[in-house]
Amino acid sequence: MNELKSNKWMQLPRDVLVGSDMLGKVADVCSDLKLGHNALIVTGQKTRDIAGMKVAEELEETGRNVQIHVSGSASMEEVENVMEIAREMNTDFLLGVGSGKSIDVAKLAATRHNVPFLSIPTAASHDGIVSSRASITHNGETTSIQASAPMAVIADTEVIAKAPFRLLAAGCGDIISNCTAVLDWELAHRLQNVTFSEYSAALASMTANILIESADSIKPELESSVRIVVKALVSSGVAMSIAGSSRPASGSEHMFSHALNRIAPNPALHGEQCGVGTILMMYLHGGDWREIRDGLRMIGAPTTAHEMGIEDKYILQALVESHKIRPERYTILGTGITPDAAEVVARTTGVIS
Ligand SMILES: NC(=O)C1=CN([C@@H]2O[C@H](COP(=O)(O)OP(=O)(O)OC[C@H]3O[C@@H](n4cnc5c(N)ncnc54)[C@H](OP(=O)(O)O)[C@@H]3O)[C@@H](O)[C@H]2O)C=CC1
Ligand SMILES: O=C(CO)COP(=O)(O)O
Ligand SMILES: [Zn+2]
């Protein structure tokens, strides 16, 4: 399916597998989806050994021709490299096995090469593992590009539970950010009559609220915790598919995170920054920002600049510049907040001290 069509069509994964030893089910999924002979795996340097090789072995056992490409970054050059390999081997489908970077590269290359794509995350660090968006860097700018949704998502909870807990906690931050994303979307609908989906917004909010209520169940190395987070990420991905945009899961808090990525010399993880952004933006919305902070704290996700390893001055600069990130997406930031106001929100919420 090409990009134009996927913008207008609601795309959802057909098979979603969440549980122990799911890497062993890859071949069954391929046969269920009637996928062809040639498979191209995009994986990362660490995740190649954690899951990439195992997936390749599973596919080779079915007699398939498999190639592995180890990708170092989510750049347009990498997408083009992967498309080149896909053309040369006449690949029938792609698999993104690993973290956000590998999944995004495989997702966009598959969309452009017009073949199916399977998402096999080794960490539950954000909802890109399920969604039809790909974040790709080109000429120093990272943009979120519409792509095809994965045909299947295979989340092996045993593998994900062994990933650094920081990644799972970041995934929780990305889910909790639906709280302010939906408030921003409602505001834009009221003020600018932007297209709004009640179903998508309700699903996104409910997903975030359930996660906040389950915050005390999210613990390191527990497959039960991984299941809760992966299911919530799937729900967020479905909400975005219903909306046909990232609106239900990306508002002012994501603009803050995108601004930090541009400004801070050493940004934190996407979900960590979005979680802290949610505290700040909930304050601006006049909502219960303490509930957001306490939920993140209970999970073990960062709630301050210090915990993210980011200097206070970058938080303030990002707050003042966030509204420029995506000017067409109206949020509580409106035409921007002043440096004084940024200082008040960041200090009052304890994000900076
Ligand atoms: N498509 C979308 O909608 C979205 C996309 N993104 C994008 O995703 C990327 C961020 O993804 P994120 O996953 O947070 O971070 P990264 O892709 O940067 O991955 C973080 C690190 O974790 C490692 N890792 C992954 N799984 C394991 C594991 N099981 N054990 C040990 N290490 C592991 C990775 O290894 P390795 O080196 O092998 O990859 C990598 O070094 C960014 O490029 C961002 O722009 C973010 C949000 C939404
Ligand atoms: O990260 C996302 C949703 O959680 C995707 O949103 P963006 O459209 O801001 O990249
Ligand atoms: Zn996100």
Any chance you could write out the topology, listing elements then pairs?
Layout lengths: L2 H6 L6 E5 L6 H7 L5 E6 L3 H14 L4 E6 L5 H14 L3 E6 L1 H14 L3 E5 L11 E6 L2 E6 L5 E5 H6 L2 H12 L1 H15 L5 H16 L9 H21 L8 H12 L6 H15 L4 H11 L5 H4 L3 H10 L17 H10 L5
Parallel strand pairs: 1-8, 2-3, 2-4, 4-5, 5-8
Antiparallel strand pairs: 6-7
Helix pairs in contact: 4-5, 7-10, 7-12, 8-9, 9-10, 11-12, 11-15, 12-13, 15-16
Model description:
The chain has helices spanning 3-8, 26-32, 47-60, 76-89, 100-113, 157-162, 165-176, 178-192, 198-213, 223-243, 252-263, 270-284, 289-299, 305-308, 312-321, 339-348; strands at 15-19, 38-43, 65-70, 93-98, 117-121, 133-138, 141-146, 152-156. The protein is globular. The chain has a six-stranded parallel sheet, sandwiched between helices. The chain has 16 helices and eight strands. The protein is α/β, with parallel strands linked by helices and 353 residues long. Zinc ion binds at residues 126-127, 174, 249-250, 254, 270, 274. Substrate binds at residues 127, 174, 258. NAD(+) binds at residues 100-104, 122-125, 131.
